[in-house]
Amino acid sequence: MTLAPWEYLFLPFNSRDFPDLFWPISLASLAIVVAQVVLYNVLTRRYRRYEPLVTMQEWMLWTGVISFSLVIVGAVFVFYFVFVLAFIGVGTGVYLWARFFRWPPLIAAYNEDLHRSRFFSQAKYKHPEATIRSRRRRRRGR
Q1: What is the DSSP string of 23-56?
Q2: Residue 4 Cα to chain centre, angstroms
């Protein structure tokens, strides 16, 4: 480090000015984008019947893809380092907010509704003869 820490913010983000950070950040961003797409495909197939979980995975996918693709674009087109830090910070912040603050109450409400509907469904068929139709006798001659 030959400059003050705040002077590095306005240097171009390239491998010459940031030899220790450029490749790890660029490759980690690429790996996160690929992992996010794979996780989305796997988890949406697993949770296809649970709408809030699928919607949450869409939020996670687009947040990860947009944020970390911008980091890759910043590395390719040599943006200032402050922009790369902003992409990482805002993307990670939105990712954490959505995962730990926005979706847990919605998922809890969905689970409660699911438990309630299962309880009433079980109560309806709790008696063994509830699923057996009773015979109605027809009178002949009428």
Answers
A1: HHHHHHHHHHHHHHHHHHHHHHHHTTT-HHHHHH
A2: 38
